[in-house]
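Possible regression after last week's pipeline update?

I re-ran a chain I had predicted before the update to compare outputs. Posting the input and the new output here so someone can diff against the archived version. Not blocking, just want to make sure nothing changed silently.
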Amino acid sequence: MENKEEETSKKKTLGRRKIPIEKISNKKSLQVAFSKRRGSLFKKASELSTLCGVQVAVIVESPAGKLYSFGSPSVDSVIDRFERTRLCFNNCSEAHEEEKGVMEKSNWWWEDVCAENLGLEELEERMSDMQVLKNNLLKRIQDHDDLVMADSFLNL
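New output (post-update):
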């Protein structure tokens, strides 16, 4: 009788368990883990935005090279704010010295990319992605310049 009770009280699944933090070698497991953790990351970013009232943008590249993004209120608005800050970076007033110090210490994501480890196809894909990013940034700069010119024209 005791054996039957012990058997029924045992878990039938492995449940949640701690995994070592190292790169997953199995491609299928890697994709599953990426998909689950991407969702969790976006949920945490949403919670941070809601709880703290901050703007958040998260851009993630999958193991397959596909880009995913989340933003609150939107990725575009956060990037716009970031770009405005970067544009005024060199012309900051003394009131912005603290922000300037933080930005000088930052490492940009493109500084950490190790191109030596990428194959030709991956390099071409990254180059294509960078061209799209460059075009988007140039369009935003042009839009910003158009707004500044329109604003100065209205103030004449």
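Follow-up from reviewer: compared with the archived run. The beta strands are 56-61, 67-72. Marking as no regression found.
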